[in-house]
Amino acid sequence: MSIKKEKIFHGIPVSSGFARGPVFVYQPYLPVISERVLKPDDIDSEVERFRRAVRNVEAELRELHQQVGREMGKDFAEFIDVQLALLTDEEVLNETERYIREQLRNAEFAYSQTLKGLTVSGRAAQVPFFRERFADMADVSARVLSVLLGDNLPSIFGVKPGSVLVAHQLPPSDAALLDPAKVAGIVLEAGGKTSHTAIMAKAKEIPAVFGADAILKMIQEGDEILVDGYRGLAILNPSANRLKTYEAEIKREQRRRASLKALVEEAPVTLDGKMIDLSANVEFLIEARQAKDNGARGIGLFRTEYLFLARRRPPTEEEQFEIYRDVAELFRPFPVIIRTFDLGGDKVIPGYTEANPFLGWRAIRFCLDDIALFKNQLRAILRASAAGNVKIMFPMVATIEELRRAKLVLEEAKKELRKEGKPFDENVEVGVMVETPSAAILAQQFARESRFLSIGSNDLTQYTLAVDRGNERVARLFDHFHPAVLRLIKNTIDAAHEQGIWVGMCGEFGADPMGVVLLLGMGVDEISVVPGLLPETKQVIRSIDTGVAAEVAHQALKLSTALEVERLLEREVHHRFTKLARSLHAVKGAGGE
Ligand code: PEP
Ligand code: MG
């Protein structure tokens, strides 16, 4: 309870659940560096002040290395080694000292001038790949400057257990490092429902609300916040009454979740007996285990780019092989669909910018421009295919040529492995992610050259409606029920079936109960969702008759607006899917206000 005045922020519900805790504000650090001229007598002590700051940061980083390694695994701690190397780089240290002595300037000014000089001289730009070290360099220099200036440095690792992270924006690379045991909830001013940060929050089962406009301006030291991830509410300093209502609802929600767990052993079968392959979307091995525990019948989407983002460097073939193999073994005989790197868009290493990242150097385009990196990944996936039922999927394909070129690289990888005598599945299936309007319109042609198709509704919606999936200003225009999107989904499903191949949905459309109604009505074979939503999605599947759903889908496809589709779905679910309506009511009942 708080005596401060309650304030409600209406945002976008991104990750369901409730959270309550003290606010932890996370903001990028923007040091204010002033230039000071030193007296000759002060030079030695200034140099010593600089050295001490570097020593302090070194100790801090070593401690962080231990902490991250302990809490999140060795792999995640690796980027700290890189930062330590940058921190203690002789050239930077000597050049800063020289600057202090010869230019008679204060340490923070000398240090920042040295780093600027490095960037301009291009030495920093020569480090391999994606200017990846810029991000680390920026982190390291912020640490050193904060010590010199006596500022508190916000760090994603500095979250006090049980607090709610509030920020303007959070890149997916930072979100990947969040520890769900520590962060109770997330509230962002920016971001959209299907941004990759949103997907990360869902995957980690951290309740989250994005688009909470101007919340940072209202936050004061010691504030408490309540996150309602069902309705998209962030309630600053909730009143005693509000807390009382929510306490009852949180208990109801816990009971509902516990009852869903009982569904783990049940089959994902519709009321009329159609078995749906219900699988999971994962990023890390730990999630794959969680998916297995929640009854997944395979991995429908393994987003591999996080192996890259978490390390801030390309993972080696061996590192990838071990992870892919472990997941394949875990799920054998069920399939594990490994998607090749979908880097770019909002999943870039900080420091790399493009004018239109979602229309730029992303996913398959990026991989086809870096054959060595791409082939390395394909070799790792192929090798893992010897350990289980592994399939390969290419993201953001827009042209048939891209698919053909990617397959040629795959053939080269196979040839190399044969020569080296390394085993793999010669018949490994290759599929395409249908997530560009081009691929959905040409689904027939893509289906002829693929073994399966998997629809990525997040990007398909973004590209069809020309709405940035991560921009809160246009979030209300992002609607996967738009009839234009539905028609592309239908075209893709029909095209796959005409060619005799299976088709799945791995976008967030499949995590929406109303989306499941339409998908089953359109005849989809597989649905893949984040591990935490598996029981809920199974319950939805088990409440649907595909014949009735087909009639609803047929009507929906004739409508003109997303709102008309949503109204139709609500009406039809209420009247014709009573079992589903009951379970949806239970979910809604868990909401606040
Ligand atoms: C999609 O675009 O729907 C999808 C599943 O891929 P991602 O969200 O990783 O872009
Ligand atoms: Mg996508």
Automatic annotation (TrEMBL):
SUPFAM superfamilies: Enzyme I of the PEP:sugar phosphotransferase system HPr-binding (sub)domain, Phosphoenolpyruvate/pyruvate domain, Phosphohistidine domain. It is found in: Cytoplasm. It catalyses: L-histidyl-[protein] + phosphoenolpyruvate = N(pros)-phospho-L-histidyl-[protein] + pyruvate. Its EC number is 2.7.3.9. The keyword Cell membrane does not apply. Residues 160-232 form the PEP-utilising enzyme mobile domain. The active site is at H196 (tele-phosphohistidine intermediate), C506 (proton donor). Residues 10-133 form the Phosphotransferase system enzyme I N-terminal domain. Phosphoenolpyruvate binds at R303, R339, N458, D459, R469. GO terms for cellular component: cytoplasm. Residues 260-545 form the PEP-utilising enzyme C-terminal domain. GO terms for biological process: phosphoenolpyruvate-dependent sugar phosphotransferase system. Mg(2+) binds at E435, D459. It is an enzyme of class 2 (transferase). Keywords: Cytoplasm, Kinase, Magnesium, Metal-binding, Phosphotransferase system, Pyruvate, Sugar transport, Transferase, Transport. One of its GO terms (molecular function) is metal ion binding. Its main location: cytoplasm. Belongs to the PEP-utilizing enzyme family. General (non sugar-specific) component of the phosphoenolpyruvate-dependent sugar phosphotransferase system (sugar PTS). This major carbohydrate active-transport system catalyzes the phosphorylation of incoming sugar substrates concomitantly with their translocation across the cell membrane. Enzyme I transfers the phosphoryl group from phosphoenolpyruvate (PEP) to the phosphoryl carrier protein (HPr). This is Phosphoenolpyruvate-protein phosphotransferase.
